[in-house]
Structures are given as structure tokens and as C-alpha cells.
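User: For my dataset I need records formatted as: sequence, then C-alpha cells, nothing else. Please produce one.
Assistant:
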Amino acid sequence: MPSSTWRLRSDAWEYLRFGVKRIALGNDDETALTRDGEIARNLRALETIEMYWAGFGQRYVRGIAELLSAGEYQIALERIGRVVQRLRGSTVPEDPRDELLEEGESAEFYDDADPRPRFEVLVIDETTVNDRDSMRSENLRLRSAADQFIYDFVVVPSADDAIAALLTNPNILACIIRPGFSGRSTQALSRDLRDTIALAWESANVPTAPASSSLSSVQRVVRLADVLHSIRPEIDLYLMAGANIEDLAGALSRRFRRVFRREDQLELHLSLLRRVSHLYDTPFFAAIQDHARRPVGVFHALPVARGGSVVNSKWINDLADFYGLNLLLAETSATSGGLDSLLAPVHTLKKAQELAARAFGAKQTFFVTNGTSTANKVVHQAMVQPGEVVLVDRNCHKSHHHAIMLTGARPAYLEAYPLNDYAFYGAVPLSSIKQMLLDYRAAGRLDEVRMVTLTNCTFDGIVYDTERVMAECLAIKPDLVFLWDEAWFAFAAFHPVTRRRTAMASAKHLSERLKTSAHAAAYAEQQKRLFNEDGTPAPDEVWLSERLIPSPEAKLRVYASQSTHKTLTSLRQGSMIHVWDQEWVRDARESFAEAYMTHTSTSPNYQILTSLDLGRRQVELEGYDLVQRQLDLATSLSQAIARHSLLRKFFRVLTAHDLIPEELRGEGSAMPLRRGLADMWRAWEHDEFVVDPSRITVEITRTGVDGDTFKHDYLMDRFGIQVNKTSRNTVLFMTNIGTSRSGVAYLIEVLVKLAERFEERQEQRDMTQPITLPGEVPMPPLPDFSSFSEDFATDASLPDGDMRTAFFNGQRRTAVEYVLPAQMRERIANGETLVSAGFVTPYPPGFPVLVPGQVITKEVVDFMSVLDTREIHGFDAERGYRVLL
């Protein structure tokens, strides 16, 4: 499948080396070389795959097949070894006298020792062998020792092959379209890849490959450009044509970075290098490097700057030994001399944030150096006034609840569906959000609702259809603001499938939809069904049954907070706020600036800012590669657990069918990516909820231990395996862009050792004594938000309340008492209403079970009493709960 082509390619070459080596050494017979033999099958697969990668190509694979047919095993082994060494990242020693390499291939092949970063350029055109050799020779002629980068060509003949190349080869950073390409591929593509190619055409609203003779050259080029951009929007498109390029440039300027004549090879070469240099640019990192190299005198804050208080100390000079001198040389309070102020950036930080906005598809991006908790507070303060209503998932991170309290807004809590069998929550159904908006409209209070705040994706990997949620909510209230907490989803912007469910990509796509005549017509038609002739709204059932279409005049106001440090490369607490707000200048810019000033330190950590700048560079240049590998490794882990007979006995990977209720589930498979990228693509395009495949939730009931014990006593203490979250009977394994195949193999090895230990323990237990496994003890249902007490409720018919007043009442010692759980149960049973004086937050996952002003129910107390989380904020085990008098 496309998502694992990188591994299929690598493994196929590795196997060829192994198999051919055994034959060459006489340790195996030649049956593997027959048409149905393993070596022959790998060679056929590689002949297709290598078309989409630079460096070797199909002729190279055919040459190896010919050598094997001729019995030249040792020579074939040497050629295979060159490929394996390159794929492993090794250099290949130069041997220009090797006569086995064809002219045109050899020159390209033997620049492996060049240390400069290398990228690949896709060329789409029907070409001959001589044409391709000429292109590569011209590329080598144009290379200069002064060039910062080098590139190789990937040449494909058809539109379908171009899509296949972009899906399978993450090294491609630019694409050159020539009008001579054909439509359909003649390659022996897998069914999954063919299905994915068809979905790519569909998703770009292009009916089929542009092969029809009824289409003009311009129409064929436009259609292909649109589908390529929808798959990999980070890739620059160039058009190379013959005649009438002036007319083409005017017609196609929106889709292509530049249009060239075929003879303008030098200009094209310089454009390709220049564009990658823009992606590579890290302005703030460069400024920090320059600062560290300059001799300066420090008459400012920070004794640690330049190592002043460290390197000459006999007591703490080990700090420099451990972290290195560059850390201290780069430490400064200065905001001039090439550096910049985070609070009022005008130079390097301003540019770094603009580059980040480009990378993540935002209109504006802001760096945050004290985590997404602060990023959330910035957005809430900027967008919400005291007394306004925020519709918020009750199970979102505690920072949202704190932000609402600080702003004086009134939370109206949305309930996520519970997963009682696993002791955690899912996500909020769209029907619940729509119903709450309709309830506020019926009460005449819809104008008070300001913002909707949801977590995408959740801690456990549940992902919303962000575009659909925003569209249907805007159809009810067209000026809503949306805050998507994407703390765990920053990586998603860099994969063709996951990108479509990010806040920024959804905002862009929805804004384009709103401008179309088809959307306006559909909106007008639906309004006839949603409103009666007298202008009154139809019953709620009608609004809930339809997929609502927003007004073309609706304003998109979308914010996303991302913990860059959680899923991309950044030092801890490095986060970003991404903005797509069509009312930014008129309504948001000044309030956002004030909120940013309120919560941002005047002494931000420059190392965190530098890592954000570098993390952005990385994902623009290799993000697709890293995310694709991450998803594939996660799939490998889940498959290994499911297929291993001993692991299956004690561990079970939860699937979409476990994590999404049947009534909210799409028609896709339980784990779509296991069946291929096409299945995942369909699910992520159509289903209300999907599961992030990079997260593996494993149910451990049959091990005989609870999740917290399994995490600390078994995984961490015994084997050094770090995991973030557990529930009573589950453990969450999260892959990331730093996960390696060796790391996954080690985890599987550890799980096998633990399974052997659990099996031995069960075999030795006294069979006459019945036991109850921890996960089999009945768990109280997860409690819904009860209500705000009468003292803090705004309206008995609606759920919002004055949490701010309740919070500050709870800060007065004379206004609170502590009540132990047993006493609390007794008082509740006697009919007393007990009200929480503060937040009670088990961590992880970090959302409050109780908030200030909330009525404490028996269900909440029962749930808290069986939690095995070691860290609970706001609860004193000795004194109990803080309750308002």
C-alpha cells in the first residue's frame, strides 16, 4: 500500500541482497529465481516502485534481473549492495570504471558521496530513454559547487503515475508538468494504489484522469495541477511548455509558481534551488547562531549568558559539560543585534512565524513558549467577553476551563460519548452540538453564544470532521468562533489524508466552498426546508436530520492551538497558535495582541523559539516522509499484537469499532489503514469520527494488573518504556515522527516477555481460588456534567453558569469546607446539595471531573473512588473535597 511503500522498497532490496547472497555462496538453490520465486516477485515489485524514485530506476532493476538470469550472481550482488547502502544512508565508493552501469545512470549514481542535502523533482511527460538521460546529464552540467542543495529527477509518463509518485515518494519537493503527458498508468499498480489514485481525483473534484481528447491542453494541465495540489499542497508546481507561454502564464498563474519554455533550463534549475532555500530558511535560528559566534559584552540581565556565571565556577561548571557551551553562548536577554522580541517581532521572529503560517496553512501563526495551556488562554481571552457563552467539551484539557473562568465567560458543557468499558470519553457528537445551539435559539439567547471549543484529536485519538462541524454550526449561527485544541495533532498537517481534518485545512476548504455558485444554490434550496413560509424555523427534528449548509455570507473565524513539542520537533513547551479569521483586522487583531501580551513572558526562552523555527523547517522539507513512516510503524505495532499468539492472549488493540459507537460509526473497517491507504482515505473523507492510526490503545484486562500499575511497575521501571496515558484497563502507546522500527521491535519484545510472565503466573496460581482481574471489576459509568448550582446557574433551562464567581468564592477560606468521600455520600443521600469549590482534575488525561459551582453527585463520588490515577489536582486525600458553604 502507498503508506508503506518506503518500507516495501527497503525490505525488497534487503531481501534481494540476502537471497542473492545465499545463491552466490552456494547456500541455496535457484528456485527463488523462477517466475513464482521470492526473488523474482521482489524484482517485479521493484521494477514498478523504482519508477517513482530517483537514483536507480527501472533499467537498473531490469539490469539486475538480466545478470541473475545469466548466472552473474556476484556482480548482481554488488549492484544490489549499492542500493542497500544508499537506502541505509551510507555512501557508495566511487568506481567510475564499473561498466555495468549504463551511460546516463552512472553519473547520477556516483554523486552519493556529495554531503549536500538532496531532494527530488517530479517531471510529468512521456519521454524516451534518451530524453531522460539528456535531462539527467543537463542536471549534472548545471550543478555548481556553490549550490546549497542537489536534486535528481523522477520522470513519469502519465497523470496517474504522477499521483502515485507523490503518494509513495516523500522526497519529491517540486513538480514540473509538461503538456505531453498521458492520462492512465500502464504500470502494474496494486489495487490499493489504484483505488487511492481514483480517490485523489474525486477529492479534488476532478472526475477522472485528464486523458480525454475533448479536453484542451490547458484543461488537462489544470486538472492535473489541481489534484496534485490537493494531495501535496506543500509542493511547488512548474509548467514547462513550448509555444504561447505568455497566454498560459496569464491563465495558470494561480496554480503554478512559474511557467518556463523548454530551453530555460538554467532558470528552472535556479528556481528549484531558490524555492528549497526558502523552505530551508530558519531566520531566528540563524540569528541565534550569529549571536553565539559574536564576541559581546554582557551588561544586561542573565548572569548565565555567554556562560559568565558557569564556565569559571568550580561548583557548577558541569552544567556546561553536560549541555555544551553553545547552549550558554546562545542564552541572552537581548532583542536587538539580529535577534527579535516575541512580544513585538519585526525581524527574525516575525519572519519565522510567517514561515510557520505558510507551513501549517494558516493566515497568521504565533509562537508560544509556555505550552498549549497558555495558547488556549490567549485565544479565549482574545475572543470572549465576560458573560458570553462558550460551548465547550466538558472533557477538554483543564486549560480551557481555567481560561473560561479567567475571562468571565459562561461555559455550556457539551457531553462526549462515554466509553464505559474502558473508563474514558470519546468525542462530542455533532447532533449534540447542533441541539445545544438550537436550544439557545429557542430560548432567545443564541446571540450570547460566542465560541465552540473542541479537542481535535482527543487524547485517545478520536478525530472530528472539522469542516462538517464548522459548516453545520455556522448554518445555525453564522458568526461563531471556533477554537480547535490540536495539542496532539500538529503532525496531521503533513500527510495527504490526515491534513483534511485539521482546523486550518478545513477552514481553507470551507472558505473556498462558500464562494462557489453551487454552494449558493444548495444553500437557497435548503433554506426552503428549514424555514416555514412565515419565516419561523422548522422543528428541530428537521434541522437535526439535514446536513446543514452555511450561508455564503458566513464568516470563518478559526483558531487552532498546537503542542508542537508533543508530535513534532520542538523543545518542551514549544507550541503554536494558528489563525484563519476573516474578521482578523476588524475584530480580533488588537484584542489578540493584548491577550498575547497578558500571557507571554517578557523573557521567553530563545532555545524553545529556535526549536520551533527548526521544527517548521523539518516538516516542510520531510514532514510527509516522517508522518508516513509514523503511521506505518503504528500499523505494524497493532498488527504484531493482533497476530502474535501469546500477545493476543493478554493484549487487545482497540479499533474504531471499540472507540466509536455504532450509531456514530461510518461504513469503513475497524482499522482502515491496515487494509490500505484507500480505506483510510474513504473513512477520513466521509465518517463523522475517525481514529488517529498513530495511537494504539491496548486493552490489558487479562494481564491481571490495572493500567497504572502496568505503566509504572512493568513498562517504565523494568524496561524503560514510557507511555503517557492509561485508564483502568487500557494503555495508550503513541507513535511519533521520532519512532523507529527498532523502537517498535523493542516494545514488541518487551510485551512478549511480559506476556510470558503473566502466563507463568496464571499457570502457577491456585485454581481452586477464584480471582477477579482488575479490569473485570464493575466500573461505575463515567459521570456526565451534573449542573451548576442554583446560585451560579444562568438559566434553569440551559446549562451555562457563572464559573468565575464560584471559583473566587472558593478561594476564601471562610467560604469552604473539606468533606471526605464517605461523609459526602452520606450528606448527598440525606438530600443535601454539595457544590464544588474548585477544579478536581485527574492527570492524565487532564480534564476536570468537577468545576467550581458544579453540583457534586453520587455518580461523581463513585467514579472518583475507583480511579487508579496517582495524580489528582484539586483533591486532598487526607481532607477530601473542597465544598462551598
